[in-house]
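Dear Dr. L.,

I hope this message finds you well. Following up on our conversation about the binding site, I have prepared a predicted three-dimensional model of the protein together with acetyl coenzyme *A. For your records, I am including the exact sequence and ligand specification that went into the calculation, followed by the structure tokens. Please feel free to forward this to your student if that is useful.
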Amino acid sequence: MIEIREIPEADADRMIDFAGLVFHERVEEGDHEREAWLVRRAERIGAYDGRVLAGQLAAVPMRLAVPGAFLGCSAVTYVGVLPTHRRRGILTAMIDRMHADAVAAGRPVAALWASQGAIYGRYGFGLATRALSLEIDSSRPLGLRTVPDERPLRLVDTASAPEVVGPMHARMLSARPGGLVRDREWWARSILPSTEREAPGFTEPRVVVHPAGYAVYRTHEDETVRVADLVAETPAAEAALWRFLASIDLTRRVQAPNRPVDDLLPHMAADPDQVTVKGDYGALWLRLVDVPAALRARSWAAEDAFVLEVHDGRLPANGGRWRLTTGAAPSCERTDEPPDLTLSASDLAAVYLGGTRAVTLARVGAVAEGAPGAAARLDAALAVPLAPYMNDDF
Ligand SMILES: CC(=O)SCCNC(=O)CCNC(=O)[C@H](O)C(C)(C)COP(=O)(O)OP(=O)(O)OC[C@H]1O[C@@H](n2cnc3c(N)ncnc32)[C@H](O)[C@@H]1OP(=O)(O)O
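The resulting structure of the complex is given below.
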């Protein structure tokens, strides 16, 4: 008999060991403190088989940038089930608890990075953002088509960085949805920790600041610069930052493993062969825990009205038909009218930030159009000027 209940804070270390077991990882000493901090900050859901912790899930209360608003968000992480207990419905039970907790706390969305794409669609999560992994060949000067903003750059120490660069990041979130609101502690522990698990052998983070942008990067003695975060308020500032990163002595490549799909860098390069797209991958999995609240909260690019029929196997309160009115004063109410579009909660989450097109999902057969052209109209209402982008590690 499996019992779902809170994992006490005192067992945070046990959760880190548990994650090491299911992810086949050894957590090094330097990373332990950061992991313990994340787990303590989270709502910790455990699945107990008697006294044995058989499954775990952590949900960190955060705020997610969506078009025109910031929504309470359960950032889900640390998900695992013991190999001796897999495929008995333990994950399903933990997700149900996470959903119930999010509803009770009034958080309309949940988000996660998935270890495998096949897991979370069944729970109403949809792939809402993609990301590019870019690399600059910086063994020669980076030629740019964009004239860099020549104002001076300066390096700031990591202790004072959040105060300097935090406001720029916050402004970016208002322009480009998909990221998490970062408080001081998030900056210190999550963005600027001295070591990064994903990048063993790299230095501690450096923060370079321009009057209209910043970059967080680490370097490696194998002559690599690795960019963890780069935000610019103008293309000219962005050009200045990339030129700086590509010109650091004793380095010859710049890796930027997580950039937005509409990143300017590949288009800025005078020689397109100097910037290579190394990867294009699914990033943020989003869940609309409260569909009407999420639809009312975001801003819309066009005035229109739709009847959406939503299928939600795990949160029945979201299911059924909704009359969505988009525009300056959005509304979302129950209706019995015939649907313009029929779609799963997972596909609704996938299109919600404007990063996936409803037309594409209709063409693959995932979204059904009751009214011809409704998917294209919904895309026009969902449209965002900048592609959604998630660059937080949780
Ligand atoms: C946000 C994050 O932390 S992502 C990290 C997720 N964790 C991992 O990948 C660690 C290693 N894996 C595990 O710990 C476990 O296998 C988990 C957590 C992925 C799944 O836990 P389980 O308790 O086995 O899942 P559960 O039994 O509830 O499965 C429910 C359904 O999902 C399916 N499912 C579960 N995991 C997978 C998977 N990896 N691939 C495909 N289907 C899956 C099951 O087959 C089942 O389908 P069914 O309802 O049609 O029978």
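In brief: Residues 22-23, 76-81, 86-92, 112-116, 118-119, 122 surround acetyl coenzyme *A (CB under 6 Å).

With kind regards,
A. P.
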